[in-house]
Amino acid sequence: MDPEDLVQLLRRFKETMDGENQAGWEKSRIKHLFGETRELRKEQTFKNFIHQPLLSPEKWRAEVSEYGLFENEESCLPVTVYLEDYRHVKYRFSSDQTLHFAVSNVMNEVLDGMNPSGLFVGYNVKTSFLLFSYKPGLKTNIYADTAACLKKIHSTLLRVLKIHMSFIIGEGCDTPEGLKQHLNELIGSEELREVLLGSLPDQAGEVLEKWLHLIRQENILWRRSRIGH
Predict the structure, then answer these.
(1) DSSP letters along 127-146, please?
(2) How much is the pLDDT for 218?
(3) What does the alpha-carbon distance between residue 54 and residue 46 come to, in Å, rounded to a whole number?
(4) Is the pTM of this model over 0.90?
(5) In angstroms, rounded to a whole number, what is the distance separating the alpha carbons of residues 229 and 214?
(6) Contact 84, 103 (CB under 8 A)
(7) CA 147 → CA 22, 170, 171, 226, distances in Å?
(8) Taking the CA atoms of the chain, what radius of gyration do you get in angstroms?
């Protein structure tokens, strides 16, 4: 083969390889952007659900059907996920957004195929939720099953990202209204946790007063139920 022909052949081969690499990079980037967009949309959907009035529970059921919640008469057990030692962890990531999506990617990977099935929902960089779907029954101990899942999630996050997570398990519920109430209660418990740890000194009075009000309300309801019986 003529040396010049060989040069031209190698040049065309390199151009082909460059084109394939560029196409592969673009495909990977599009997939990454699609994943980020889907996570942000899911996060906003649940923030609206938590903080805005629930005008139509059935419409909300249909909206989140793509996430597999409340299907086939299943109930839902919410869990708060809290990132420990955030001030130290954030220095190992270039931004809060990078940390947030790193956690969501690992969470989604470890949840894939898990039993019971779980849905990861981001809330903010330090707090997120896991929603486990299950069918109530005497043969199902969702709390024990969930605890086993959380143990695996904790060890995976520690191994892959070198971060510690703590969990607060809520109460099982079979309606969107119940889930909304429990998620708000879990968020409130995180605020109280921050106050007790000294992380929210400026909000201590407001948070403690809110919890005292809830305790008083629960006490009133308990007394009424006792009188009713």
Answers:
(1) EEEEEEEE--STT--HHHHH
(2) 47
(3) 11
(4) no
(5) 23
(6) no
(7) 44, 12, 13, 33
(8) 24
- Output the six-digit token pair for 110: 């470890």
Name 120's bridge partners.
Answer: 130
> What amino acid occupies position 145?
D
Angle at 226 between CA 220 and CA 229, to 5 degrees: 140
Q: Which two structure tokens, joined as six digits, stand for 211?
A: 């919890």
Q: Please tell me the distance from the alpha carbon of residue 41 to that of residue 47, in angstroms, as a whole number.
A: 10
Report the alpha-carbon distance of residue 134 to residue 148 in Å, rounded. 14
> Among all chains, which residue has been given the structure tokens 């330090």?
126
- List per-residue pLDDT tens for the chain, 229 residues long: 555 655 566 666 666 766 666 555 455 554 555 556 778 888 989 999 999 998 888 888 888 888 889 988 899 999 999 998 888 888 888 788 888 888 998 999 999 989 899 999 999 888 999 999 999 887 778 999 999 999 999 999 999 999 999 898 888 999 999 999 889 888 876 655 554 444 545 554 554 455 445 445 544 334 444 445 4
* 8 Å CB contact between 107 and 119: no
- 116 and 71 in contact (C-beta within 8 Å)? no
Q: Which amino acid is located at 76 in the chain?
A: C
For residues 201 and 94, give the distance between their C-alpha atoms in angstroms, rounded to a whole number.
Answer: 28
Strands 127-134 and 75-83: antiparallel
CA 50 centroid distance within chain: 13
